[in-house]
Design goal:
Order of helices and strands of chain B: HHHHHHHHHEEHHHHHH
Number of helices of chain B: 15
Strand order of the largest sheet of chain B: 1-2
Strand order of the largest sheet of chain A: 1-2
Strand content of chain B: under 5%
Helix content of chain B: 55-70%
Distance between the termini of chain B: 37 Å
Structural class of chain B: mainly alpha
Structural class of chain A: mainly alpha
Oligomer: heterodimer
Largest interface: A-B, 24 and 22 residues
Number of domains of chain B: 1
Shape of chain A: globular
Shape of chain B: globular
Largest sheet of chain A: 2 strands, antiparallel
Distance between the termini of chain A: 46 Å
Radius of gyration of chain A: 22 Å
Number of strands of chain B: 2
Chain lengths: 514, 379
């Protein structure tokens, strides 16, 4: 029941807040939600304490028959790839609830939906049955749609509907691929392990992998399936953006790694160079678009598109180092983008705008947002991959791991890292340096501009994430320790399967030449 | 380079005549309200304390660090202990750098009899005598002097300004402290009274001679002899007001130093970066001198002013900005006193020619204050 608790604690919390017959005011709803999320995080720590990093197989396995004739079983398991994402989910879930506006409208509904997302996302990361994964994957869409549509900004209806259409299509493609792999293999179950490295004909593998690539490509998102993301981020409230960028996008990369590479290693090996090129397009397109943005949140959103592209590059390379890099980049991006959205949220709350053509000098020590600005500098440095922070570790692993198989694509992706410095320094230079300027209507003094003071309650979540970004940057072994055996094993499993068939995956060919 | 420096749009005053009428009727450039009186007296009290420290240090440097090329301990006033050094490094000290910034501002902008005297052959003669006495038996300085003949005289000119500003602030400090004492006794209750007090202080000291001499190896050398005829009001006070209140110097971050940006006038006389124009919201860059003054004053604020700041929005979290705002109010009072003190004729003269001269004189001042914070301090 170790893993079920990760799903059921938030689910019960959501049910309690949503359906409790008595009255629950905003304060109490928030308290219950916070306690639930804290309990989930504590339970995650318990799971960590019991986890054996050296064991690359699925741990804490649970299997309860559900709809046997459909092949659906409630089968859960955790390995070194899922564990960091589970931790990220529990941590960012708690932070999202903590950063939610205390006087939010319809609090019971809001907190229920957030807890439901935390539950569903945990479910996807531990599902060992394809259908179960799909159910959790779909389950997370509805609350997120509602969270954007009800508590979002001015164009929330448009953004939420766009999000729903894109991700619903993504879900359909994933379901089609799962059904395809099962039926074409003639299997009666949807258990993941039954289809790892399956021996379907290559053409069928290509079709199914294609469906998965587009399906998860929408979720990550990769260019050209990305257009829902900037809209969703701009309209979503801060805590929802934190969850969206920090955790929900990882469903796409996790799915691609687990199911794309895991189920179809042979086809994967053949399309890998194209995937790496796709990664380059995504990285450069995202980065160049970020440079052109004048909305801080949109800039961070486009930077997400760029940085998620690194994960595709590393996955395409399928070297031990690069696959480890995918996991570390997921953690790194989760922490850094979460921090950035929190900080942009504070700026928006205090100044009433995110417009980079208006904001100036927010680092002003007495009248501006000095701590927010300082943490933003840290986030920017981490995102640009400066040594000493987690962004460096992840990008180094990705680039080092991908360079041998795909030198040109890797170098082009590294240009994306340089562009990160360009757009985020533009953001810092415009919004935080120079003489302070904010919209007059949001200043508490108009002549000598003054902003409401930063609150410790605003700063604490950002400081927690910043601390992790620095700590994991200084001691990367704390991350690598949990995942390395699993990523190595995943690759061995995939390449073993691929070796018996022809042609071998690109990574293998290159390693052989070494 | 991204444009990080928005144009500093300052409100332009379209009502100079209103201010001229106010001044002619005995009012000040700052509205006479009880709040303003409290703020101005309170800030001038702390300013007086800080000026006292500045003036002691400026005079010390002028007298005892004469031609010391590496004056490591110039802020220690001769008392060098390890404990004091630790406190200095810790930052628990007066920012004497601000006093030097003002001194350099005066030296650079010049004006008045002091500036003119420093270019006379008489000064050069005195200067050479003192330099020769100082560098005797010092081959390094002798070598330096023979290689760069203008270097040491320029240092002496700077020392003269150290001394001049030190003597000026000595007087101003006493004026401000006595103002505070009178306020505490209940004798000062209005802005015009404050202006009168400052004006009276300036007038009383107007003819005070400004002199400077240094002692080298037991012998005294005059740098600014009494015979030069330099006096307090025209030769230090007026250049000081010009250099520090009006012109000042631009700071990186506030304006761009990039020559192509054309944000700094090539004509020094058109500079408007002084105290009356300063943006109280600092840009957060390090080493902006006015911020150093605000830091210093914050330690000596009277309780009633501190209490007032506590009651405002954001309390004392942005106290340096609030001190600067109050300080600007007080500086408009001091400017009023200076303007009135230098007015060619009595403000209530009935002679039409004199009235016209007064009007013309005041218009000149008001034109310069057009882009200052004058309208803002009206509240």
């Amino acid at each position: 029941m170790m893993l079920s608790a990760l799903i059921w604690i938030p689910l019960l919390g959501a049910a309690f807040i949503g359906f409790w017959p008595g009255s629950l005011d905003a304060k109490r709803s928030r308290l219950v939600a916070l306690l639930t999320a804290a309990a989930t995080l504590v339970w995650t720590l318990v799971v960590i304490s019991q986890f054996e990093p050296t064991n690359a197989t699925m741990q804490f396995q649970e299997s309860i028959p559900w709809l046997d004739n459909l092949g659906l079983t409630y089968k859960l398991g955790l390995d070194g790839i899922s564990l960091p994402l589970i931790i990220l989910n529990s941590l960012l879930g708690l932070i999202a609830i903590y950063s939610s506006d205390e006087s939010i409208r319809r609090p019971r509904f809001y907190y229920s939906l957030v807890l439901l997302i935390i539950s569903a996302v945990a479910g996807t990361f531990v599902s060992q049955n394809l259908l179960l994964f799909f159910i959790f994957y779909e389950l997370e869409l509805i609350p997120l749609y509602l969270l954007i549509a009800i508590w979002g900004g001015a164009r929330r209806g448009y953004a939420a509907t766009k999000f729903l259409i894109y991700t619903a299509v993504s879900g359909l493609l994933i379901l089609a691929a799962f059904l395809g792999v099962t039926w074409l293999s003639g299997g009666e179950t949807f258990d993941y392990v039954a289809y790892v490295g399956n021996k379907l004909p290559l053409v069928q593998q290509f079709v199914l992998l294609g469906a998965l690539l587009v399906g998860f490509g929408v979720k990550i998102p990769l260019v050209p399936f990305h257009t829902w993301l900037p809209d969703a981020h701009v309209e979503a409230s801060t805590p929802i953006s934190v969850l969206l960028a920090g955790v929900l996008l990882k469903l796409g990369t996790y799915g691609m790694l687990r199911f794309g590479l895991g189920l179809f290693p042979e086809a994967w090996g053949i399309v890998a160079p194209w995937l790496a090129t796709w990664a380059v397009v995504s990285v450069l397109y995202g980065s160049l678009n970020a440079i052109a943005q004048t909305d801080m949140k949109k800039m961070v959103a486009y930077s997400s598109i760029g940085h998620m592209g690194y994960i595709l590059l590393a996955m395409a390379a399928t070297t031990p180092l690069s696959v480890l890099g995918t996991v570390i980049q997921m953690i790194s991006h989760g922490l850094i983008s979460g921090l950035m959205f929190l900080l942009v949220g504070i700026v928006y709350k205090k100044t009433g705008t995110r417009d980079l053509t208006i904001l100036r000098g927010l680092l002003n020590p007495e009248r501006g947002l000095p701590i927010t600005g300082s943490l933003m500098i840290l986030a920017v440095m981490a995102s640009a991959g400066l040594p000493g922070m987690v962004g460096f570790v992840s990008e180094f692993l990705v680039f080092r791991g991908s360079f041998i198989p795909f030198p040109v694509q890797t170098i082009l992706c590294m240009v994306g890292s340089g562009l990160t410095a360009v757009y985020f320094l533009l953001l810092m230079n415009r919004a935080f340096f120079g003489r302070m300027a904010v919209p007059i209507s949001n200043a508490i003094e108009q002549v000598d501009l003054n902003l409401l003071p930063e609150l410790w309650s605003d700063r604490i979540p950002a400081i927690v994430l910043s601390t992790l970004i620095v700590l994991l940057g200084l001691v990367p072994s704390w991350m690598v320790y949990w995942s390395e055996p699993t990523t190595t094993a995943l690759l061995e499993m995939s390449t073993t399967v691929a070796q018996v068939s022809s042609p071998p995956p690109i990574a293998m060919r290159i390693e052989h030449h070494d | 380079m991204t444009e990080t420096l928005p144009s500093l749009e300052k409100p332009s005053s379209d009502k100079p005549q209103t201010y001229i009428n106010l001044l002619l009727s005995g009012e000040a450039l700052l509205p006479d309200t009880p709040g303003n009186v409290m703020e101005v007296v309170g800030i001038l009290k702390s300013y007086g304390v800080v000026l006292d420290a500045y003036s002691i240090n400026l005079n010390y440097i002028a007298d005892h660090q004469f031609l010391v090329l590496f004056p490591f301990f110039k802020y220690f006033n001769g008392e060098i202990t390890f404990q004091k050094l630790l406190r200095h490094w810790w930052g628990d000290r007066i920012n004497y750098e601000y006093a030097e910034y003002c001194m350099r501002g005066m030296l650079w902008h010049g004006g008045g009899g002091l500036d003119a005297y420093l270019d006379t052959p008489e000064f050069r003669q005195n200067c050479q005598t003192a330099i020769q006495a100082k560098i005797k038996n010092n081959p390094m300085l002798q070598g330096l002097h023979s290689l760069f003949a203008e270097f040491l005289p320029e240092q002496v000119r700077q020392s003269a300004y150290y001394s001049g500003l030190g003597q000026f602030w000595r007087v101003m400090s006493d004026i401000f402290i006595s103002l505070s004492d009178l306020y505490d006794q209940g004798d000062i209750t209005s802005i015009p009274q404050i202006v009168d007090h400052v004006k009276a202080g300036l007038v009383a000291a107007a003819a005070m001679p400004i002199t400077y001499s240094v002692e080298i190896k037991g012998k005294v050398y005059d740098i600014l002899p009494k015979s030069a005829g330099l006096t307090f009001l025209p030769d230090t006070a007026v250049p000081y007001v010009e250099a520090v209140f009006f012109r000042g110097t631009p700071f990186p971050g506030t304006v761009s130093y990039n020559a192509q940006a054309y944000q700094i006038s090539p004509d020094q006389s058109r500079f408007a970066y002084g105290a009356l124009y300063a943006d109280p919201v600092p840009i957060g860059g390090s080493g902006i001198p006015p911020t150093q003054l605000m830091q210093d004053m914050r330690h000596y604020l009277p309780d009633y002013l501190l209490e007032y700041y506590h009651q405002t929005q954001k309390g004392v979290r942005d106290i340096r900005v609030k001190i600067c705002q109050t300080f600007q109010k007080s500086m408009f009072c001091v400017t009023t006193a200076a303007v009135m003190g230098l007015m060619p004729h009595a403000p209530d003269t009935s002679d039409p020619d004199e009235q016209a001269a007064n009007e013309k004189y005041l218009k000149g001042w008001l034109a310069r204050l057009k882009t200052s914070r004058l309208d803002i301090v009206q509240g």
